[in-house]
Design brief:
Shape: elongated
Structural class: alpha+beta
Number of helices: 13
Oligomer: single chain
Radius of gyration: 34 Å
Number of strands: 22
Distance between the termini: 31 Å
């Protein structure tokens, strides 16, 4: 009881000194909490970007290797179409047969630049060690072009294509794939009973742009699908515009003029645990050597833009800056504590002369330093929350450029060309990512531990000074 009474009295009598020491610790700890919060915010933003590409519960994604680009002037694949302009005007040619498409609308569905994978490979992947579940998907691109009646004549503009993406989702594994990352805002999601039904779930942005709602009808290469749900999705990964059952996508999809029945071009895999993901990735590469196998970790290294730069800055510069500030804060606190002990030489010497042992005096100083450290830690956490709030309020939106294998020839049909030139591929999509610093429980626990360590460290230096003190030295200074 006397220990607490003496401690309280000493802290009150030396209020200014205690405030300075606590403030020094608070600044260091506050910066650490702020940097940790900013790093956590960047990691969360990066995780949101990757989750939109993978879908909830997906650890590994397998995609068919993209076909080699068609060079202008080369022979298109069987079933592919090309546009040609000659003396007779515009011509659309397919399998060696040409006709004038003036005034017509050409609608074509292909496999979105992925090489097809046999659906039997999905079951083979599911049987691999460490794989918890696997589901196939079929990503398709529907491109339609309306040819002007005077197309090919001088001054006639090139046709403007309309394109949207369709994802054939495995209705028996709806927990895997990009649809699982969205939120149904109207209607319902796909069901296992929809396997052969012409139903679609449409992205909210696409639905708004085309004035679609639950009950509306959408057309995929002249096949009518009823909209049964509207889904809101993270836009960072350029999600599909609509989802239909996998069996229906296989029935109407084509790849270079060939049917995609019993084919997929994407496999979504969830591992039994995070620890086995690298091993699962290696096993899939052995099983499907010609296809692309990616994980969230490997894809994260490909994300560029200010999000990537900020992540590196927060992880590297922020960490070292925090360490340097903490060292400075602990050094200041230790020096101030030693200076305080030096001013209390007479007091401690008198206590020793009265019979106090060194360890009792050291315990008293350590207790005072620990309390000051805890106060500094509490103030540092408050400063950290304030710093995180300021970062969230003033930080600009970050941008992320995401490699997107869906970047197919958006305006070509079957890999064709118009006016003797191929249309360029779509650039990697760049999305805006809001920066939101968040103080985590881990950061708070770390701040408390740092406060305790800082207080004990400062007290230990003062205790070292006390341990060397002799009563005679103190009594010699008594006036």
């Amino acid at each position: 009881m006397f220990f607490l009474t003496y401690l309280r009295r000493e802290l009150r009598s030396r209020m200014r000194q205690a405030v300075f020491i606590a403030l020094g610790l608070a600044l260091g700890i506050g910066l650490v909490v702020t940097v940790t919060a900013a790093s956590a915010g960047v990691r969360q933003a990066q995780a949101d970007v990757l989750r939109s590409l993978y879908g909830v519960g997906t650890d590994v994604t397998v995609t068919g290797a993209p076909p080699k680009p068609i060079r202008p002037g080369s022979t298109p694949p069987k079933g592919g179409q090309t546009f040609q302009i000659g003396p007779g005007g515009a011509q659309v040619c397919q399998n060696g047969k040409c006709h004038n498409p003036a005034g017509q609308t050409i609608d074509h569905l292909d496999s979105a630049g992925y090489r097809p994978i046999s659906q039997s490979e999905v079951a083979a992947v599911a049987r691999l060690n460490g794989v918890k579940a696997a589901a196939g998907g079929l990503v398709l691109s529907d491109t339609s072009i309306t040819i002007p009646k005077k197309f090919g004549q001088p001054g006639s503009p090139l046709p403007t294509p309309n394109s949207f993406t369709v994802d054939g989702a495995d209705t028996s594994h709806l927990g895997l794939g990009p649809l699982s990352a969205g939120t149904i805002t109207s209607g319902r999601s796909l069901r296992s009973s929809d396997v052969t039904s012409n139903v679609a779930v449409v992205d909210s942005g696409y639905a708004h742009a085309h004035k679609l709602k639950v009950g509306s009808t959408v057309h995929i290469v002249k096949h009518a699908f009823k909209v049964v749900g509207i889904v809101t999705q993270p836009q960072s990964g350029s999600p599909p515009d609509m989802y239909i059952p996998l069996a229906r996508a296989q029935a109407i999809g084509t790849a270079a003029g060939k049917s995609l029945k019993n084919d997929v071009n994407t496999i979504y895999v969830t591992a039994a645990s995070a620890a086995v993901i690298p091993a699962v990735q290696g096993e899939i590469r052995k099983l499907l050597p010609g296809d692309t196998v990616t994980t969230a970790a490997s894809l994260a290294s490909q994300v560029t833009g200010s999000l990537s730069s900020t992540a590196k800055l927060a992880n590297d510069l922020g960490r070292w800056l925090s360490v340097l500030v903490l060292i400075a804060a602990f050094a200041v606190a230790s020096l101030l504590t030693m200076a305080a002990v030096a001013r209390r030489v007479r007091e401690f010497g008198t206590l020793k002369a009265l019979g106090w042992r060194s360890r009792r005096i050291i315990a008293q100083v350590m207790g005072e330093s620990l309390v000051i450290g805890i106060i500094g830690g509490a103030a540092g956490i408050a400063l950290g929350f304030a710093g995180a709030a300021i970062i969230t309020a003033v930080a600009p939106e970050l941008s992320a450029s995401i490699p997107n294998s869906n970047s197919t020839h958006l305006v070509s049909v079957g890999g064709g060309a118009v006016a003797g030139r191929a249309f360029p591929r779509a650039a990697a999509p760049t999305v805006a990512v809001p920066m939101s610093a968040s103080v985590t429980v881990t950061a708070i626990v770390a701040a408390v531990l740092l406060a305790v360590v800082g207080g004990l460290l400062a007290g230990s230096f003062g205790s070292w000074r006390i341990a060397r003190l002799r009563p005679a030295d103190a009594l010699a200074r008594v006036a």
